[in-house]
Write a structure and sequence with these properties.
10 helices, globular, 258 residues, 0% strand
Length: 258
């Protein structure tokens, strides 16, 4: 898949989820251009999650060249659907573990707070990540690609599926997916990952594309209703826009050292 095709996919997904949120909104009164929307739109341009998959695509192609020199790359000879499935599951499990770290290691949490500063959830909030967090993710996620010997095209396909899953989980949609919630992430689960501590337990539902890890490791929480508030303690004082959101983690680390 060419780079231009990936941009076309992202544009199509933006239109699709915007339309779906207008047709089946979880919160009908939520405005399309809610507070922070334009800042989140800027993340699509500047956030390395957007460019990260593109960078990852070229990196994976370079890694594929290295793998060609290996005597027996682990999965280079198996069908593409097997490569896709193994990479999707492997990467998603690694993301679940990294996501856990982002919540439990104080200095990583300062950067992950940027994402949890969302108080009105919709698909575009999926892009609100501090660039330090994205670098932390990507530097670890390229490892399985190298070890498995999977070509860049498969890595990009997994990235697109992850983008669809992330948009869906963050979307302002009232859809519930019944038994599929035991396999795939969804708005009903991910809202309880973003819930304010006043509304219920925190550090639950770490899954990204797949939810199966939360059910297996005991971190799933789906009470059957939506939380009343999103965010974290002190979110009211957190910057709502860029560049304040990029600076906030650094200021938080400085305050923590005092």
């Amino acid at each position: 898949m060419e780079v231009v095709d990936y941009y076309q996919v992202l544009a199509a997904l933006a239109v699709l989820f915007t339309v779906l949120e207008r047709l089946w909104p979880r919160i009908p009164a939520q405005r399309l251009f809610r507070n922070g929307w334009f800042s989140d739109a800027a993340y699509i341009v500047f956030n390395s999650k957007y460019s990260g998959i593109l960078i990852g695509y070229f990196t994976i192609r370079w890694i594929g060249t290295l793998n060609a020199a290996l005597p027996r790359p682990l999965l280079s000879a198996v069908p593409h659907w097997v490569q896709f499935t193994v990479l999707l599951v492997t990467v998603d499990l690694m993301k679940w573990m990294i996501h856990n770290l982002l919540h439990r290691v104080p200095w990583l949490w300062e950067f992950h707070k940027v994402h949890h500063s969302i108080v009105e959830m919709d698909w575009i909030g999926d892009w609100r990540f501090h660039w330090v967090e994205t670098m932390f993710y990507n530097s670890l996620l390229y490892v399985p690609v190298y070890c498995l010997g999977i070509p860049g095209e498969i890595g990009l396909a997994v990235g697109i599926v992850d983008t669809i899953g992330g948009h869906f989980a963050h979307a302002n949609l009232k859809w519930r997916i019944a038994w599929l919630k035991y396999i795939f992430n969804s708005p009903e689960m991910h809202l309880w990952h973003h819930n304010h501590p006043d509304c219920g337990p925190v550090n639950r539902n770490f899954g990204l594309t797949l939810s199966v890890w939360d059910w297996l490791f005991g971190t799933a929480y789906v009470p059957g209703h939506d939380p009343e508030r999103l965010g974290f303690d002190g979110v009211e004082q957190y910057p709502e826009q860029l560049p304040g959101q990029w600076l906030a983690p650094l200021l938080g680390l400085v305050r923590g050292r005092r």
